[in-house]
Amino acid sequence: MRFLSTHRRHPLAGYAVLLFGLLLAAALYAAFAPGKADADTATNDPAKIEEGRELFLVGCASCHGMNAEGIMTVAGGNYGPSLVGVGAAAVDFQVGTGRMPMAQSAPQAIRKEPVYTDEETDALAAYIASLGPGPAVPDEEYTDVSEISQEELTRGGEFFRTNCTACHNSVGAGGALPSGRFAPSLQGVSEKHLYEAMLTGPQQMPVFSDDVISPEDKRAIIAYIKNVQNQPQAGFGGGGLGPVVDGMFAWIIGIGGLVAVAVWLAAHGARVKKKRS
Amino acid sequence: MSTTSTPLKDTGVGKKAAGPVEWLDDRIGLAGLVRKNIRKVFPDHWSFLLGEIALWSFVVLLLTGTFLTFWFQPSMAEVPYDGSYDPLRGLEMSQAYASTLNISFDIRGGLLVRQIHHWAAALFMAAIIAHMLRVFFTGAYRKPRELNWLIGIGLFAIGLIEGFAGYSLPDDLLSGTGLRFVDGLIRSIPVVGTYIEFFVFGGEFPGELIIARLYMAHIFLLPGLLLGLIAAHMVLLVYHKHTQWPGPGRTEKNVVGYPMLPVYAAKAGGFFFVVFGFTTLMAATLQINPIWAYGPYNPSEVTAGSQPDWYMGWVEGAVRIMPNWEFTIGPQTISLNVFIPAVLLMGILFTVLAIWPFFESWVTGDKKEHHLLQRPRNAPTRTAFGVAGMTFYGVCWIAGGNDIIALKFNLDIFTITWMARVLVFVGPVIAFIVTRRICISLQRKDNDAILHGYETGIIVRSAEGSYAEAHAPLPPEKAFALTARPRVPELTAPVSEDENGVANPDGRKARLRAWAKRFFYAHDVDKPTRFEVEDAAHHFHDDVYPPHDFPDDFSGVSETGVPKQH
């Protein structure tokens, strides 16, 4: 402890304490932040539908109406849209990614820890699916990308670049949209939820129905996203956000670091004698 | 220096080398030139090394660029990719993109060299700008260095184009999008835009020629120009000798520093290796421009977060915040929405930069030679103009990344755009006023330190119980450095008529110039006079400053109470 006490007035001591505090806070957060869960498919079981209806009345009806018919605002706007015919896939996506129920009114619902368990999500999806025909939760054969062929992977990339990167960025890092809305990052999104997003077009996203992009092609796209995101990085990648981050690094790390060397080099001339004893 | 050393020609090495050296000197006669320059003196200051960062990163660019040319194929011919990167295998792409993928994945060390090359390019431009700002804010461009300033502006402009050409060569989705941006920029030039576009691209965008043409420019034409201009820049630097900060023994007629050999050659040479090593370290640990993630260029595709490299970011931003002003005259579309922020603004930036030294000398009427630098605070109006310019550039630059900022800070992209639209006009004005006042306050602070000494941080309690902070006189060297600046010139009224009452034919011009000079020097705080300094020294131990005897090497205490050391 001599080291600490003798260096407590060192010019860098304050920064060191600050850094330590930040690291400690980050470590505590990482240790206590809750983990993730995943949802499963819905069924047509009447008991499940009834269970879903009860959950719906408690957690969803205040915005979407007692019969999921939607609620209009006084001004004629949409307080909560009608859910008749959105299908099980939409519920599984919105509830399974934690977007619904929304924590607050915002330009866009954000991904967060799911409030409902997998079984509860299934029940909600079953209830909504019972209200009218809509897209169902996809079969596992379309969300399992482990057996994808080379040709499909390349084709998935072409589909991804043609239809998705304009908003979601080339590695799915996300992108900004008008008025506070955004295309979210695709990092860490499950295969099933990627598929459901294409199928149901949540929030700002267009719908890519099975007529537009076939289930096989959807699987190829998902395979490409997963493959690209699992590629090794050539060094720290800065989140795949492109040249803006590169420029920041060039100035802060590059010029900052070289100026530090320049200061050292200029201060230590051949004839500079150390004054300190 | 020791005077008893053996002359070089009498040492062992000298005797052996004498023959070949004489042979060489008889034929090329460099001895005189070397003898003259070997002891050339360079002053030491960290800010003088900013230009050196640019120079050395240029050398790194030449070395790594040569390596890359061994494998890069500047062709837009389509080939199916069969390299080792899975997600693109079998895809049709240009040879340029395929060969860049090969450099990245299948050539040993290729990815590292590519990343060194790209980082060095980003650093080259950043160092040029940092160096330019140093020269600007210290007034180093004043007579006799105006021409070297112009050469520097030329280097800056060519560096921009060179960087952009390199950014476009891999023919990936990002560089193609950048090319499309420049295509729009060219087309926005009224009347001749489309003709220039067809000339540059050999027809409709993207054509099949542009990569080969950019390649020629990128590896031959522009580096050649850069090399020539850098040589001229350096020759003029040697001819003018380096500027220096004022201090004891430093005048407008001498240079105080270290000789080229052995000190500066070692320092500068060492710095080259530091720059090369640092760039390599960055390239090894930080990913830049992962072209494989973007995919090959296809005009029907685009990716979110498409931005140019940072040095074109401000043009991108200016275009992003520009309102959509566009109209047609007959068959001509006039795209002011692109022409003003891209073409015109870039032209204005370089024109203003080029004109400034001559404009300032016209305003101040200063035709003297200057080899001593000015501290930014001692030219408040110039510094304020500089910071205003930086603010304008900075707002445009931020606007160029508005989507990334919106995404990462959960903001509304329209709000950022509108903020930038307002700030691009208001920001520079505020920055100008604030900077000028800060400079003037700092001048006052300097004067205060000269006259009343500096605050030691020691609080003294008097017998009556009052508290005061002890001041100590500045060390003479420091006081000298602070006062080694010219006096603020007298501002005289413009001559409106001569002694015979005849009106001055240049009356308007003289009035304008007098106004500009008054504006330039307004509120400038002059340094204390000799009388004021002597008077203050005489009264130093008055009751205002509690008498206190400090040891010679004392230089105050820090906030934590520890004595400071030089």
TrEMBL record, chain A:
<dbReference type="InterPro" id="IPR009152">
    <property type="entry name" value="bc1_cytC-su"/>
</dbReference>
<feature type="transmembrane region" description="Helical">
    <location>
        <begin position="12"/>
        <end position="32"/>
    </location>
</feature>
<dbReference type="GO" id="GO:0005506">
    <property type="term" value="F:iron ion binding"/>
</dbReference>
<feature type="binding site" description="covalent">
    <location>
        <position position="63"/>
    </location>
    <ligand>
        <name>heme c 1</name>
    </ligand>
</feature>
<feature type="domain" description="Cytochrome c">
    <location>
        <begin position="47"/>
        <end position="132"/>
    </location>
</feature>
<keyword id="KW-0679">Respiratory chain</keyword>
<dbReference type="Pfam" id="PF00034">
    <property type="entry name" value="Cytochrom_C"/>
</dbReference>
<feature type="domain" description="Cytochrome c">
    <location>
        <begin position="151"/>
        <end position="229"/>
    </location>
</feature>
<feature type="transmembrane region" description="Helical">
    <location>
        <begin position="248"/>
        <end position="267"/>
    </location>
</feature>
<keyword id="KW-1003">Cell membrane</keyword>
<keyword id="KW-0249">Electron transport</keyword>
<dbReference type="GO" id="GO:0020037">
    <property type="term" value="F:heme binding"/>
</dbReference>
<keyword id="KW-0349">Heme</keyword>
<dbReference type="InterPro" id="IPR036909">
    <property type="entry name" value="Cyt_c-like_dom_sf"/>
</dbReference>
<dbReference type="GO" id="GO:0005886">
    <property type="term" value="C:plasma membrane"/>
</dbReference>
<feature type="binding site" description="covalent">
    <location>
        <position position="164"/>
    </location>
    <ligand>
        <name>heme c 2</name>
    </ligand>
</feature>
<feature type="binding site" description="axial binding residue">
    <location>
        <position position="168"/>
    </location>
    <ligand>
        <name>heme c 2</name>
    </ligand>
</feature>
<feature type="binding site" description="covalent">
    <location>
        <position position="167"/>
    </location>
    <ligand>
        <name>heme c 2</name>
    </ligand>
</feature>
<keyword id="KW-0812">Transmembrane</keyword>
<comment type="subunit">
    <text>The cytochrome bc1 complex is composed of a cytochrome b (QcrB), the Rieske iron-sulfur protein (QcrA) and a diheme cytochrome c (QcrC) subunit.</text>
</comment>
<keyword id="KW-0479">Metal-binding</keyword>
<keyword id="KW-1133">Transmembrane helix</keyword>
TrEMBL record, chain B:
<keyword id="KW-0479">Metal-binding</keyword>
<keyword id="KW-0812">Transmembrane</keyword>
<feature type="transmembrane region" description="Helical">
    <location>
        <begin position="413"/>
        <end position="435"/>
    </location>
</feature>
<dbReference type="InterPro" id="IPR016174">
    <property type="entry name" value="Di-haem_cyt_TM"/>
</dbReference>
<feature type="transmembrane region" description="Helical">
    <location>
        <begin position="46"/>
        <end position="72"/>
    </location>
</feature>
<keyword id="KW-0472">Membrane</keyword>
<feature type="transmembrane region" description="Helical">
    <location>
        <begin position="116"/>
        <end position="137"/>
    </location>
</feature>
<feature type="transmembrane region" description="Helical">
    <location>
        <begin position="215"/>
        <end position="239"/>
    </location>
</feature>
<dbReference type="GO" id="GO:0016491">
    <property type="term" value="F:oxidoreductase activity"/>
</dbReference>
<keyword id="KW-0249">Electron transport</keyword>
<dbReference type="GO" id="GO:0022904">
    <property type="term" value="P:respiratory electron transport chain"/>
</dbReference>
<feature type="domain" description="Cytochrome b/b6 N-terminal region profile">
    <location>
        <begin position="20"/>
        <end position="246"/>
    </location>
</feature>
<keyword id="KW-1133">Transmembrane helix</keyword>
<dbReference type="GO" id="GO:0008121">
    <property type="term" value="F:quinol-cytochrome-c reductase activity"/>
</dbReference>
<dbReference type="GO" id="GO:0005886">
    <property type="term" value="C:plasma membrane"/>
</dbReference>
<keyword id="KW-0408">Iron</keyword>
<protein>
    <recommendedName>
        <fullName>Cytochrome bc1 complex cytochrome b subunit</fullName>
        <ecNumber>7.1.1.8</ecNumber>
    </recommendedName>
</protein>
<keyword id="KW-0349">Heme</keyword>
<feature type="transmembrane region" description="Helical">
    <location>
        <begin position="260"/>
        <end position="284"/>
    </location>
</feature>
<feature type="transmembrane region" description="Helical">
    <location>
        <begin position="149"/>
        <end position="169"/>
    </location>
</feature>
<feature type="transmembrane region" description="Helical">
    <location>
        <begin position="338"/>
        <end position="359"/>
    </location>
</feature>
<keyword id="KW-1278">Translocase</keyword>
